[in-house]
Amino acid sequence: MELTIELVGRGSRHFDLQQVSGEQITLGRGFDNDVILSDPHVCAHHAVIESNERGEILLKDLGSVNGTFTKKHQAVGQACAVSSGDEFMLGKTRIRIYRRDHAVAPSIRLTWVEKLAHLASGPLFTGAVFIFAVLMSVFFQYTNEIKTFYGGRELITAVGVLLLITIWPVGWMLFARTKKHDAHFMAQLSATIVFVILVTLIQKANKWLAFHFGVNLGLDLISSGLYILLSFLLIWLNYYLSIFQTSKKRWIYAASFTVLLASFAYVASTFDAERFKFRPEYNATLYPPSLTVYSTQTVDDYLESAETIFDEALSMVDVKK
Amino acid sequence: MLRFSVLLLLFSLLPLPVTADTAQELFSRYADRLYQIKVIEKLSSRKSAIGSGFLVRADGLLVTNYHVVSKFIHDPDKYYLQAISFDNKVESVTVEDIDVVNDLALIKFTGKNRPYLEVTAKTLRKGDPIFSMGNPLDLGTAVVPGTYNGFTKQSFYQRIHFTGSINPGMSGGPVLNSQGKVVGVNVATAGNQIGFLVVADKLLKLLTEYESRGNKPIDYQQRIHEQLIKNQQHLMNTVLSADWKTISLGDARVLREIVPFIPCWGDKGHSNKNKEKYITVSISCQPKETIFIHPGFRTGMIEVQYKWAENISLTTMQFSSLLEKLYNGAGPGNRAGEKDVTEFACYEGFVDQPDERAVLCSRAYIRYKGLYDVVYISATVNHADKGLVSHFTLSGVEKAIAMRFVKRFMETSQWN
Fold this sequence. Notes:
The complex is a heterodimer of chains A (321) and B (416). By secondary structure, chain A is α+β, with helices and mostly antiparallel strands.
């Protein structure tokens, strides 16, 4: 009888696999056992695995103090038939018993993501996106500055903000380490910075589009959708880099996390929407003529379209009542 | 002979210390016609507002300011009114009529054969001594001698300019001439000996209206509504029928003072003392008075504002940011609360001649249907190194009248 015994830790992570063979395989805390379990709730000679004449595997409890149980909490007692892969509880220790020919899960194929992750892990790439993000931030500050522009100060501020953002990849790194996986810190950092750059650019584009084509286009909805999509991609990649998961599981985890974050953002935005606005809300953006694309109306046409605001305001009275 | 000389002495002395004697005399003669007005909050039974008032009819009809009793007007279930006489007799009073535009209220307790003050429309001359009476800061009845200085200039809601201290609590008190006739009602102060009085004519008009209506009770909100509608028609017609002249502001031509009661002030902004990166010049036109509806709600005003910006050494993007900052955050010039108005509804678009981004917003009055606050802001978009931001607020106007103003305002904007 040749078996593989898996010692299972909390959270279903295996932490040891032992190859054992023989007519009888003994399990217990005693040093004369085939499989030694260090759990103090396990007896010196706790249980034994045997096979009968038909080749079936049987697990027997040797009258231990805390007993041996199946996954469904049934006492094993004198003999219990074992199928390959079954899980048992000895004291507080969980084990799985496998035949050598037990089929393992299909291997996870390495995808293009791996290449991307490899690229993103390079200090050159991380450095490049970091510098790009800093320069972008300083550039936007520069175009917005109407008094004296202090480049050094803006640079320091931008670096400071990016360091603050580093909390996110650090969190994922710690998560991966607790799961005993590689940290992939550089790749996590790169992904996060790229995310921040993309969000900033979408914001700018959204502002420009909203200025020109108004809010009626549902631009806010589109940009919110884009933010959610980007967040999902980032979190998906965060999971990919942190732990090994099946693709399906990763999708579910990343989607749930995204939904959670999006609902937080949504709830936060409704707080603001509930507050009464004493000032008009309008698109307070202006661009230089070279960046402005517009077609004008005559004053009469403008007023004809604008006239509806009175009815719109009046309809809010009815809502209030 | 001796008797004659004593008589002569008496006569010659008489006209000298006129003010002191008259003030004393008026006070002792008319103090019994003065009342302190209290607005009492029902739950706490404590006063929430105080003012002064005076009898104008023998049957207990008193005059005070609208703003003294405004809390009661808007929340009659939460407050009640008391009038307290010079000898501390407390009378409970009701509001009979109001004039929100001229800040007057007629209130009444049931009385008979009360001594009262007469109101006169007789005109005074600048420098005439007049005497303001009231209960400043709840300190007891006081008389303040002062001087009549004509009507306030540059004002739509005309008042008497009184030189003498009017203090909180004296609101609604009478101002008498040396003959003891009411020539005005205390209403406001601008600090240091400058006081404002409601003109007696307005009070006489309200009294006539009240008497011709008989004893029919009024709906306060409906009365305010009517008066606001009528007032804005008068105000806007005055503004729209004026000759709108323009002056240059940078390369643009903008409105100069449309009417004297919306005076304009100018200011120049700098970027930096040593190295000027741009220039901004602004013109701001605001009326001195607004209509008080309640402490959180004012209306009946028009404001106009222009800001001109010219680039010296900013980049094109930076200059556009400067214009954006000037264009940002436009708001209404009048205060209003959540229970008074809706939020703003806005329309944004581009107009030509000059090419501008223009935003027109309006919010509706909740209790005074048909009235709106209108806010407009625009910025020119076709110049990289100069720009004009134009803004105005119309508060408490009807749609049709507002649209006439907007059209004319937009058509007035020109570039040289």
